[in-house]
Amino acid sequence: MAALIYPPKPRPGDRVAVVSPSAGLPAIFPHVYELGLRRLREEFGLQPVEYPTTRIMGADPRERARDLTAAFADPSITAVLATVGGDDLITVTPYLDDEVLQANPKPYFGYSDNTNVLNHLHRLGMVSYHGGSVLVHLGRPGTLHPLTADSLRAALFGSDWYDLSPAPQWGDEPNDWNDPDCLADEPVMFPGTGWHWQGPARVVEGRTWGGNLEVLHWLLAADRVAPAESLHGSVLLIETSEELPPAVEVYRMLRNLGERGLLAGFPAALIGRAKAWEFGRRLTPPEKAAYAQQQRAAVSRAFAEYAPDAVLVFDVDFGHTDPQLIIPYGGLARVDPLARRISVRY
C-alpha cells in the first residue's frame, strides 16, 4: 500500500474547525456542546471555529460538505474536529471538493458515522484520526476521562509513537443529555477487564483501516471502499454502535468483507469494546456480558473462516464506550502479542 501523508499538527493557541458533517446535535444539546468547546479552549488551548451548519439539524448534505471543504481550505485552521456521529454522512462525502482537501491536508478527528470521512481521506492519501467527539468525549459529564484526554492531546499535538493502555474503568451507560443537570455527575463506570488476545504470537505492524462496522458495510454497498489488494497488510479497526447489532449480523457483515477479499489481507485486527447498553435497550449486567461474548464469538468465527492466522485484540477502548482512545486512521500501528502491547504513531 502506498504511503499516506501525516498532515501537520496544530499547536496550542491555534484555530481549529468544529463541524457537524453528520448529525447537527449541538442544536439539540447546546449545554453538552458548550462544555466540549470550553474544554477545547481551556484544557487543550485551542480556539474552536464554528461553521454555518455546525448547530443545524438536518442541514442539506451539500451545505455540510461545503462547510467541511471550507474548513480544509482555510489556511488559519490547523485541525478539524467533528461534533458527533449520526447516520447519513454517506450522502455528504460525494459533494466534498477532493482537490481542496488534497491541497490542504489537515488532521481530521471523528468516529462512528465519521467513518465515511475517515475512509474518504484515506483514499485521498491522508492520515486522519478515529475518535475525538466534541459532544461525547470532550463534553463528557463530570470530568474528561484521563485516558481520553491524554490520548487526544498526544494525537493533536504529537507525532511520536504512543502506547495505548487498557482502561482501569470503562462505561457504556451515558448520562441523559436531555437533563442539563446531568453534566455535574460522573457517568457510571465498571472495573476494567483488560484486552483479550487471540491468534499467533507474532508482532504485526501496518497502517490502520476500518472504523464502525455498520458504516463500513454501507460503504461496501455504495462501492466506496478501496480495492482489497490495496488494503492488504493493514491493521483492521472495527467497532459497533449504540444500535447494538446482533451477533449474527456482526458475523454476516464480516463475512461479506471476507467474500470481498478483505479479511484475508489483514494480519491483525483491533476490536473495540462492544457497547451493550442504550436508553432504549437497558440490558442487565448478565445480559451485557452475554452480548459482548456473543460479539467476540462472531468476530472470531469470521476470522477463523477467512483469516485464521490474524492476531486479534478484543475490548480495545476506541469505539462507542468510555474512555475513547484515539487511533490514527491510515497511520501506523504495532500489535505485539508477546509484550501484550499496542502502539500507534500519531
UniProtKB/TrEMBL annotation:
<dbReference type="InterPro" id="IPR040921">
    <property type="entry name" value="Peptidase_S66C"/>
</dbReference>
<protein>
    <submittedName>
        <fullName>Peptidase</fullName>
    </submittedName>
</protein>
<dbReference type="InterPro" id="IPR003507">
    <property type="entry name" value="S66_fam"/>
</dbReference>
<dbReference type="Pfam" id="PF02016">
    <property type="entry name" value="Peptidase_S66"/>
</dbReference>
<feature type="domain" description="LD-carboxypeptidase N-terminal">
    <location>
        <begin position="16"/>
        <end position="131"/>
    </location>
</feature>
<dbReference type="GO" id="GO:0016787">
    <property type="term" value="F:hydrolase activity"/>
</dbReference>
<keyword id="KW-0378">Hydrolase</keyword>
<dbReference type="InterPro" id="IPR040449">
    <property type="entry name" value="Peptidase_S66_N"/>
</dbReference>
<feature type="domain" description="LD-carboxypeptidase C-terminal">
    <location>
        <begin position="205"/>
        <end position="335"/>
    </location>
</feature>
<dbReference type="InterPro" id="IPR027461">
    <property type="entry name" value="Carboxypeptidase_A_C_sf"/>
</dbReference>
<comment type="similarity">
    <text>Belongs to the peptidase S66 family.</text>
</comment>
<dbReference type="InterPro" id="IPR027478">
    <property type="entry name" value="LdcA_N"/>
</dbReference>
<dbReference type="Pfam" id="PF17676">
    <property type="entry name" value="Peptidase_S66C"/>
</dbReference>
<dbReference type="InterPro" id="IPR029062">
    <property type="entry name" value="Class_I_gatase-like"/>
</dbReference>
